[in-house]
Amino acid sequence: MIMVNNIEKDKAMLNSSLEALNRYFGYSSFRPGQEKLIASILRSKDTLGIMPTGGGKSLCYQIPALSLPGVTLVISPLISLMKDQVDSLSQIGIPSTYINSSLAWEELEHRLRLASRGQFRLVYIAPERLQSEKFLGILKDMPVSLLAVDEAHCVSQWGHDFRPSFLSIAPLAGSLPTRPVIAAFTATATEKVKQDIIRLLCLNSPNVYSTGFNRENLYFSVLKGIDKTNFVIDYLNDHKGQSGIIYAATRKEVERLHKTLMRSGFQAGKYHAGLSDTERSRTQEHFSYDDLPVMVATNAFGMGIDKSNIRFVIHMNMPRNIESYYQEAGRAGRDGDPARCILLYSPQDIHIQKFLIEQNPLSPERKAAEYSNLQKMADYCHTSACLRQYILEYFGDKDVPENCGNCENCSDDGKLSDITVEVQKILSCVRRVGENYGVNLVANVLKGSRIKKISLLGFDQLTTYGIMKEYTAGELANMINLLVAEGYLITTEGKYPVLRLGNRAVPVLTGKEKVLRKIRRKKAPAAGTADTALFDKLRGLRKEISEKQNVPPYVIFHDSTLQEMSRLYPVDRASMLAIGGVGENKFARYGSQFIDVIVKHTAGTQTAPLSEKQSATPSSADTASHLVTYQMYREGKSFKDIAASRKLTLQTVQNHIIRCAQAGCEIDWESLIPRSQEELILEAVRRLGPEKLSPVKEALPKEIDYFTIRAVICKHKI
Ligand code: ADP
Ligand code: MG
Ligand code: ZN
C-alpha cells in the first residue's frame, strides 16, 4: 500500500514538474538526467548531478524551487552570471534575487528580509559571502528547503578551479534552523573530485546521477602544420556574424592576434588578466550583448560566460590538460545547435606548457600529475582515432562508440594509406637506443642528424641511423607522437620522458599487423540555418528589446528559439508556444511583437517571383520546402495529409501555401475560406489595416484563425 502511494506521489510530482517545464520554460520534454535529478531532490534526498555543460543543470534546482515550501539558496561562484540567471528567471515569472559583494549591506539585508517573508523562490549567493560571520548571522532564521551548489567541483583541490570559500558551504548547511536538502551540480568531475564533493559538502548518502560527458552538437578538430593566424582570418571571413572565442596561451599572443584582426577589419574584443577590471567587464558585456561577435582571450576569460550562442571556440595553442580543454571548448554551443571546437596544434605548445609547469611551485607528486595530464592532452592532438571517443574515455564514460561521425577524424573519409614500414623503422629505432631516449633524439637518429650527442653515444653506428632521411625532423616527431597516442609507443612521465615500446608494438615489428593512417582533408560539413533573412530580423527585434531592458539578448530568447521560429513561421499563440523556449510568460511579453515580424516578413516576399526568390536565398531549405508542399496541394492532398506525410505542423503547411500564393502560385481560395467569414475578415482588415494581424484577429470571432485572415488578405491582394 505504501509503495503504491509512493508511486502515485512520484507520478503526480513528475506531472507537475513537466507542467512547470512547459509553462515557465517553454520546453516540451526533459533532457536526459533532468527528470531523475528533480525527482531525487523532491524526495528530499541529497543529490549529485554530473552533466555536461549545456546539459541543463540549472533547471534541475529551479523546478524543485517552485514547489518546495521554503527558499532555495543557490551557491554559484559566477558573480557575473548571477544577474543573468536572476534576469532570466524574472523574464519567465519566477521571483528570485542575488546576493554578492556588489551590494551594499542595507540592500543585502533588505533582500534577505524579503526572502524570509517568502517573496523569492530562489536566492543566488556568492560563496565568498559565506565567510562572513555577520552574514551567516542573518541567514540563521531563513527557512531554506534546498541548498543548490552549482559548479560543485570548485570545492575540490583536485578540480581545476578550487575555491576555498566552497569549504564554508557545509558549515552553513549545518547552522540553518533545519538542514536543507543539498543538491550539487558540476560538469567536470573525475572520480577523485566526485568523492571530494560528497565528502566536503557533507552530502548525506546522496543519489549520484551522471549523464556522461558527451556533447553531441560539438564538432571537434585538431589542425596541425598550418599558419594559425591565416587560418583564423580565413575562418572569420567564412563565418561572418557568428559568435566565437579564440583562446591564446599568453597575454602577448592575445594582444598580437587582436591587433592583427582589428587591422584586417574584424570586430573583436580582447580579454586577459593584464587589463583593468572595468575594461574586462565592459568587453565581456559587449560580447554577451552580441555587440562584439568575437573575443580573443587567455584562459582568464572563462567562468561566467553563459552566452548560449557561441558557434566556435578556436584554440591557438594546446591547453595544459583535457579538463581545461573540454571546459573551454565546451563554451561553444550551449544552445544545442551545431558548433565547432578547433585546436590549432604546433609542437612548441608542449614547450610552453612544460615551461608553465616548471614555473609553478608544486609538490613532486602534483608535478608528475601535471606532466601526465599534459601528455594525455598531447595524445589527443596526435590521435587519428575518434576525438570525441578520446575525450569521453578520458572522463571515464562507458560504452563510447568507436566512431562518432561528428569530428575531424570520423567525418574525414579520406583514403587510408599503409605506413607499416615507416612504423617498423621507428619502433626498431626506439628499441636500438635501449628504450631510454625521448622523441627528439629518436627522430634525429632516424633522420641521420650529425649532432654531437648522437656520435658521442655511438648511435650513428646503429642500423636504424639515417633510415628515414626523406622526412624532416618535425614530420618524424609528429609520427612518433601519433604512435604514442595510439599505444604503439609509450612515454614515461616526468620532465624528460623517454620512449618505450607499447603493447601494440610487437605485432607490428613481427609483421603480423599493419598500420593504416588516414590522409586528412580540410573541409568539414557546415551547419545550415533556416530562413536567414527572417532570423536576422528576429535578432534585430530581440536586440532592441534587450537594450530597452538592459539584459543580454539571450535572456530574451536563445538563438535556437529564433532559429526555430524562422524555420516554422509561427503566427499565433498555439504555434508560438510550440517553439522551444517560448513559455507562457515570454509569450505574453513578446509573442505579438515576434509574430508581427514574422507576418511582415512573409508578406514582404509577396511580389518577388519564385525564381528570383530561389536564387536570392539558395541556402534556405524552406524555399524548396514550400514548393514541395505546393506540389502535393496541387495533387489534391489535404493540408492535414501533407502535414502528416511530411512530418510538418499544420501551421507550417499553411504558411507554405501563403508563401506560394504571395509568390504568384495559383490557389483555390474558395475551398479554403469559409464564405461566412470572408466578409467579416475583409471588413476588419480594411478598418484596421493589414500590417498587424493580432488586432485584426482580436476584432474577429474566436473561431476565425490566422490562416484564414492571411488567406483573405492574399486573395484580395490587400
Ligand atoms: P548547464 O548549467 O548544465 O551548463 P544550463 O542549465 O545553462 O546548462 O542550460 C543550457 C541550456 O539548455 C539553457 O539554454 C536551457 O534553457 C536549455 N535547456 C535546459 N533544459 C532544457 C530542456 N529540457 N529542453 C530544452 N532546453 C533546455
Ligand atoms: Mg550551469
Ligand atoms: Zn569522432
Short characterization:
The protein has 718 residues and is of the alpha/beta class.
List the helices and strands and how they pair.
Blueprint: H1 2-25, H2 34-42, E1 47-50, H3 57-67, E2 71-75, H4 79-91, E3 96-99, H5 105-116, E4 122-125, H6 133-139, E5 144-149, H7 169-175, E6 181-186, H8 191-200, E7 207-210, E8 218-224, H9 228-238, E9 243-247, H10 251-263, E10 268-271, H11 277-288, E11 294-297, E12 310-315, H12 322-329, E13 339-345, H13 348-359, H14 364-382, H15 387-394, H16 408-411, E14 416-418, H17 420-432, H18 439-447, H19 452-456, H20 473-485, E15 489-491, E16 499-501, H21 505-509, E17 516-518, H22 532-549, H23 553-556, H24 559-568, H25 573-577, H26 584-604, H27 610-616, H28 621-634, H29 639-646, H30 650-662, H31 675-688, H32 693-699, H33 706-715
Parallel strand pairs: 1-6, 1-7, 2-4, 2-5, 3-4, 5-6, 8-13, 9-11, 9-12, 10-11, 12-13
Antiparallel strand pairs: 14-17, 15-16
Helix pairs in contact: 1-2, 2-3, 13-14, 14-20, 17-18, 18-20, 22-24, 22-26, 28-30, 29-30, 30-33, 31-32, 31-33
